Structures are given as C-alpha cells and as structure tokens.
From TrEMBL:
Source species of the chain: Apatococcus lobatus
Protein name: Kinetochore protein NDC80
Pfam families cross-referenced by the UniProt entry: Ndc80_HEC, NDC80_loop
Domain Kinetochore protein NDC80 loop region: 366-594
Gene3D superfamilies, sorted: Ncd80 complex, Ncd80 subunit
Function comment: Acts as a component of the essential kinetochore-associated NDC80 complex, which is required for chromosome segregation and spindle checkpoint activity.
Coiled coil start-end: 246-346, 480-525
Length: 614
C-alpha cells in the first residue's frame, strides 16, 4: 500500500504534454563519445544507453551502405572485400589496434598477436567492443553462440558460422572474423562522429524538444521506480529552466523595446537635425570653389607672366633697335663734326644754325610729350583690358563649375542632352564673338530654360513620393507600437499563469498534507481500538478506505491540474517565442525600410541641392 501511495504521488509529468515530434524521436543505438567516464564504465548522462545485446531492429547509428547489403535474399552473400589478402589483413590489424588503444583496451595487443590469435584474445576483443556498444554488457557465456548472435542483431551482412569460432586463429577462419570485427569498429567510430556532430544539427526548437524529451524519460523512470525525491528534483529543475527561459525572453523583449526606442530617437534626431551629408556637400562645394579660384588665379598669373615676357622681348628688341640707331646717330654726328670742322663758317650761318636747332629741339620735345601721353593711354587700356579679361575668365570658370556640378558638361553628361554648355575664353580674339566660344542667347539660354522646366516637374513628383513614403513610415511606427502592446499583454498573461500555477500547487500540496494527517490519525485510532469489538473496527476500516479514496482522488486531480498547468505554460512560452520572432522580423523589415526611406530622402535633397543654382 505504501509503495502504491508513493507511486501515485510521484511528481511525474503525463506524456500527453509532450509534442508528437519529441515522442517520435528515438535515441541512436550507437556508442557515446569515448570520454574518460565511458572508459571507466560509468554512465554518461541521466538516461542509460539502450542495449545492443537485445533483439535490435533499428538501423539508427549504422553507417550508410548500399541497399543491396541489407537485402532479404535467402542466398549466402559473398564478402567482396579481399579478406584473404595479406596486405589488407595487416591494414585491418593496424586499424583494430589503433581503435583498441585509443579506447582503453586493458589486455596486451600487438600485430604479431593478431596474426594468429588465440580464442581468449578474440573473446577479450569481442567483449570489449560489445561493452563499447552496450555499457550494461557483462560477459559472453559462450563465444561460439554469443558472437554470431551479436553480429546478427547488428545486421552484419555476412554470416559467421558457429563452427568457425572453435578454431578462431586458423588461416581459413581468422580473416573473416577479423573483417567482422573491423566492421563493428567502423560502426562504433561512425556513431562517435555522429554524436559529436549531433548538437550542431539541432536548431533551438529541436534542442528544446530534445531536452524536454530527456526530462520526460527521466521523470517517468523515477515514477516507475517510486523515487519521489528524484522526481521532485527533476520537476524543480525543469521549472527553474522554464522560469529562466521566460526571464530570458522577457529580458530580450525589453532589450528589443529599448533598441526600438533608441532607433526611433535616432530617427527623430536625424529628422530634426540638418543632414551631415548636406554640410559635407556644402564644405565640398566651398573647397571646390576655392580650388577653382586658386586655379584661376594661377592661370591668370601665368597669362600675366607670359604677357610680361612678351613685353620684355618687345622692349629688348626696341632697345636693340634704339642702340643701333644711337650708334648710327653718333656716327652721323662725328661725320657732321668733321664736315663742320672742314667748312668755313661765318656769323650768319651760325645764327641760322642756332635758330634751326632751337626749332628742332622744340619739335623733339613736343613729339616726346605726345609719345609719353600715347604710351600712358596704351598702358591704361592694356591694364583695363587685362582686368576685364580676368573678370570674364572668372565668370566663365564659375559658369563651367556650376554646369559641371549640375551635370551639364561634357556633352555626354546626365543632363546635357547632347548640348554644348562648356564655355572657353580666347584671349587672341579680336571681337566679342571670337573671345567666347558659345552663343549664350541663341543656344545656352533656351537649353537651360528647358532643363529648368523638367527639373521643376521632377521636383513636384519627388515631393509627392516623399509624402507617400512619410505616410508609410508613420504607419510602420503605429504597427510597431501595436506589436509591442501585444507583447506586453502576452508577458502579463505569462506572469498571471505562473502565479496561478504556484497558488494551485500550494493549495494541492496543503490538501495532500491534510489528507496524510487524517490517514495517520485514522491509523492511530485503529491501533487504539483493536480490542473493542468487530463493529468499531469495521467502522474504522470503512473510514480508512474512505480517506484513502479521497487521497487518491486528490492525487489524481493534482496530477491532472499539474499536467494542465504545464501544458498551458508550454503553450504560453511557445506563443511568446513565436511572437518574439515576429517582432524581430518586423523590426528588421522596419529598419530596412527606414534605411531605404532615408537613402531616398538624401537622394532627393541632393537633387534639390543640384537644381537650386539652375
């Protein structure tokens, strides 16, 4: 009776709360990884590994082979491996020795020993490999009976006769048995690699179901063995995991909410503040203008330098010509002085010559003054012309810079439409049309007018599109707010369910404690009235059975309510996880749309900035 009570009150979770995908999952019948504990013969984990010694029907954990190997043909199959080849046998021996050494084989082993082994050596190796597959394996009773049964249960594709095991070291028996042992080694090695790669093949949902399945298996085992302490410990551990998972989900939800608020704050800040791209573009434009100005100054100075060099060459030519004229005049003076010295001069000739010289001096002075006046006027005109040409070049360079920024030059530019907008200055031109290379009124102005009208139409279209995009952004913000409200509501439901579960659990435990106290009191009353008579004893037994039935009823209701609460809690956690993933996807899409809208706004502002000078 006490064992029955203990089994009924064990904290086992009904199998109805487990999802079908978890119940249908089976553990592999292969080996665990060769850890230190497995080498020492201890269990690794809460649940022992299923035995391979029984009637195995599952092929889980076996390496994939061709379907022809596992056929149901009634004929005897021929081993295609070269088992009689000496080189192949040596290779199998090395592989077997390596596996046994790595997995803690305790007996002596060497290539010489495996060339023609004795029956005890083969028995020790087979028992060790079987123990690797089944931790609960004890020992073989008879080698000639147990080894064929082992390989038959493992679905070894080739037969092993019992008569061959009476002389295992003979040349016609040992190669086939060695190949069978290596087949088992390959099977165990494959299972080790499969178990190592198993954690990487599970996603979050599958890993959670796998953990819950292991919990159900351990709890059911404790229930069957009547271990209430272990069952309660498993329940508390799983409940703590659920609470930690719920806390983690709530924390992630809060972090997502904070991230959304930060993103929204940054978005509002970016909308309220001037765009850094505009400031950078303004600085870039300013630097480009300064560079153009410096380039124009350099070009102007170079032109002025060339002009001064030309004037210097002209003055040097004039100087050379004047020097030649001076030399000629000096020669003429000397000749005249010689002639004068040879002539006889009277007083009238001297007076006439003096008068003539005075007149010539006056004429020379007048001509020199006229020459200086003309040279000053020519210099003033040259300076004025140079200033005007410099101003014209500055204007043309500013015009070309603006046209380049507006993508109007060269003729293949985006907005040029095949028209020539680039202007050039020819300082050697004689008239205004020769100095400037473009017809500003006839071709440039009409083309710019058409471009202005086109840009205005596009600006109106972009404004309408920007308004529509802003409406979409506002709608997305409202959707995010609604999702966050739903998330908060689900969180409150989870907290309410947890509180209700704890409250009902406390009430049920109190009812069970009260029922046990009544049973104990009834037992004491029965012990006290054993000598009274048959009728009081019968009444006591009746009351005892009544209380026992009430206790069983309370226990059943407790288990049912616990199962219901566990199911509701699991559904709530799944709903929260699903909602969390939906929120993450919405946030990701929202951020992507915000980035796209921001890029569109920046592109629109850039186009408007480029269109303003036009």
């Amino acid at each position: 009776m006490e064992n029955k009570e203990r089994r009924q009150t064990a904290g086992a979770v009904p199998l109805g709360t487990v999802s079908p995908s978890v119940l249908n999952a089976r553990k592999s019948l292969g080996l665990p990884r060769a850890t230190k504990e497995s080498k020492l013969g201890r269990k690794t984990g809460l649940i022992s590994r299923p035995s391979l010694a029984g009637k195995l029907v599952s092929t889980g954990g076996q390496p994939q082979r061709r379907s022809s190997t596992y056929g149901n043909s009634s004929g005897i199959k021929t081993d295609p491996r070269p088992v009689t080849d000496k080189g192949y046998q040596q290779k199998l021996v090395r592989t077997l020795i390596q596996f046994l050494s790595e997995h803690g084989y305790q007996h002596p082993i060497s290539p010489k020993l495996l060339t023609s082994p004795m029956a005890k050596d083969v028995t020790a190796i087979a028992q060790f490999l079987h123990a690797q597959a089944d931790p609960h394996f004890k020992k073989f009773t008879k080698l000639e009976l147990d080894v064929p049964e082992l390989f038959k249960n493992l679905r070894y594709p080739f037969g092993i006769s019992k008569s061959a095991l009476f002389a295992v070291g003979s040349p016609h028996t040992w190669p086939g048995l060695l190949a069978a042992l290596l087949w088992l080694v390959e099977l165990l090695s494959y299972q080790e690699r499969a178990e190592e790669a198993r954690p990487e093949t599970f996603d979050d949902k599958q890993a959670a179901e796998h953990d819950f399945y292991e919990y159900i298996e351990a709890a059911y085992k404790a229930f069957l063995s009547g271990d209430d302490a272990e069952a309660q410990e498993l329940d508390d551990s799983k409940m703590q995991q659920f609470e930690e998972r719920a806390s983690s989900i709530a924390q992630e939800s809060n972090e997502l909410q904070q991230g959304i608020e930060q993103i929204q704050a940054e978005l509002r800040k970016l909308r309220s503040e001037p765009s850094p791209l505009n400031a950078a573009q303004a600085k870039l434009t300013e630097y480009a203008q300064d560079q153009e100005k410096l380039q124009r100054v350099i070009e102007s100075l170079q032109g002025h330098k060339q002009s001064l060099q030309r004037k210097l060459q002209e003055h040097q030519g004039d100087l050379h010509s004047k020097q030649q004229q001076l030399t000629q005049v000096q020669q003429d003076c000397e000749e005249m002085q010689q002639k004068v010295a040879a002539q006889t001069i009277n007083r009238d000739d001297v007076l006439r010559m003096n008068t003539e010289r005075s007149k010539q001096e006056e004429i020379r002075t007048s001509l020199a003054m006229q020459r200086e006046t003309l040279e000053r006027r020519v210099g003033d005109q040259e300076v004025k012309l140079e200033h005007q040409l410099g101003a014209l070049e500055t204007t043309v360079q500013a015009y070309n810079s603006t046209a380049d920024r507006l993508q109007l030059i060269p003729t293949t530019a985006k907005r040029a439409d095949g028209a020539q907008f680039e202007a050039q200055i020819d300082r050697t031109g004689a008239i205004a049309s020769d100095i400037v290379s473009l017809d500003l009124k006839g071709s440039v102005k009409p083309a710019l007018t058409r471009l202005r009208d086109t840009s205005a139409d596009r600006a109106r279209a972009l404004s309408a599109e920007a308004l529509a995009l802003q409406e979409r952004v506002d709608a997305l913000g409202i959707a995010i707010s609604e999702r966050m409200e739903e998330n908060n509501g689900l969180q409150e439901q989870v907290e309410e369910l947890e509180g209700s579960w704890r409250e009902k659990k406390g009430d049920l435990e109190e009812d069970m404690r009260s029922a046990r106290e009544k049973v104990d009191g009834l037992k004491q009353e029965i012990a006290g009235v054993r000598g009274w008579g048959s009728q009081p004893l019968q009444d006591s037994h009746t009351a005892y059975h009544t209380l026992q039935g009430q206790l069983e009823d309370v226990t059943r209701r407790t288990q049912a309510e616990r199962a219901s609460l566990s199911s509701e809690l699991e559904e709530a956690i799944e709903m929260i996880c699903s909602h969390k993933f939906e929120i993450q996807e919405i946030i990701r899409k929202t951020l992507e749309q915000v980035r796209q809208h921001q890029a569109a706004f920046q592109a629109q502002q850039w186009d408007e900035l480029l269109e303003e000078p036009a």
